[in-house]
Amino acid sequence: MANDLIIPLSVLDRVGADHSTLTLGYVLDPQHAHNAAERVDKAARAVASEWRLLAATVLKEKTKSGGNWSLSIPIQSTLPATYPTHSFTSSTIKQTLNPPRLSEKNAGVLDRPPLSLFRPANSSASMAEFAKAGAPILRVHVTEMNDAIWVGVTLPHGVFDATGMGMVIKALDAELKGEAWESPPLPRGEADLMDAVAEATSGAQVQQQQKKEYSVLYRDYVKPTFQAWVWILLTLVLEFFWHRNTTKQIFLSHRVVANIVNPIKEEVKSQSNGAEWVSTGDALLSWTLSSAYRGSRSRSRIAVTSVFSARNILPKLPIYPFNVPVTFSLPFFIIPELHPSPAPIAILHRRTLDSARNPSFFRSYLEHLESLNPTVRRAWDDRSWIFTNQVIAGMPELRAFGPLKAFWIFEAPFLIDHVVMINKVDEGYLLLCVLRQKEWDTLREVVDEL
What we know:
- By secondary structure, the protein is of the alpha+beta class.
- It has helices spanning 36-50, 127-133, 162-177, 190-200, 208-217, 226-242, 254-271, 280-292, 343-356, 359-372, 437-448, and strands at residues 5-8, 21-28, 57-61, 68-73, 87-92, 107-111, 139-144, 149-156, 221-222, 246-253, 301-309, 325-329, 333-334, 375-376, 382-389, 406-412, 419-425, 428-435.
- Helix 8 (280-292) packs across helix 9 (343-356).
């Protein structure tokens, strides 16, 4: 509309994220979720009417390099009752799926339910599709079955990262409970990000030597050449059709997590005489790698990329729901280095994370992305893993209907192979993984022994 506020997004919103949507799936107990569809629809409208970012539509500005994304946000003081603040759909299926309840397990590998339970098949899956449809970015779907109610909240990944999604869920949860919540101020998009970067790096010089050191950290980004795209497509075909990659979730109770991570933390502390430490996320990353390759005699080279949010290194960044991921790569290692203990990989991850967690690296990282309009390189002879610890985002925190039976994340049209997402629920930790069938067979054996 003519009076809408136009907010341009940053390069971080179009580095692959603009090709997909994120759907958060909540499995509810029908005994605690009466009139769930009506209540969720009403709450979504109330939240989007107050937090106008959620009622936005997507625009594309054409440029020589392809185009930049912007949001068109309605800012009139009162929206008409018929204004499309969000898209809502629901369905009823008289069937029973018997989804496992997390509280019934100490540890287990969970099969992922169909995405169609959480969003309609014809939903927009990219920023381009949202722009073409002219539809609001927030989509909510509810499926009612005999033994569970499935609630899906979908938003374009080109707008929200995990922290942004968590902000939406917390607002929706408060509205459902009738609790007060505060609408975040409308961000200025790219302007907010660049102002925060400029202030954080004021007076600092990113020397060429530093850039050379940083290049190891962001080695996964190259120019989007024909060869690079062919490399990616060949790798995806190999992984999904030959190695039969599938998406499942590992549930680990708090007791099981303690039994896994405490020995790793103690080993790191002992070997460094207390000078170094690793987090639970570091330990779970190294445990997942070590477990997936338990007993393997392969000497294949492993490439590991990890992701963290730049919010904690940009203190002047306002409340910011858009994408601010920092992606960094660990030095290559070979599978035998995972044995007999995962502790060395945990401390390698911690050291690399600490070296990347500074404003100068982030500024250099942004300049690198801007210069490439990049794509992700997937080396043919490497097994490339991507880890993202999303615990701090709080995406599972939809508690208005009582304890969750399960929580799932979907990225449409698909997640690439060897991605691991770590989240925390009341009962423990969830590790969503996209892995080869052989790796899942090994992991299932490890988890069954816990």
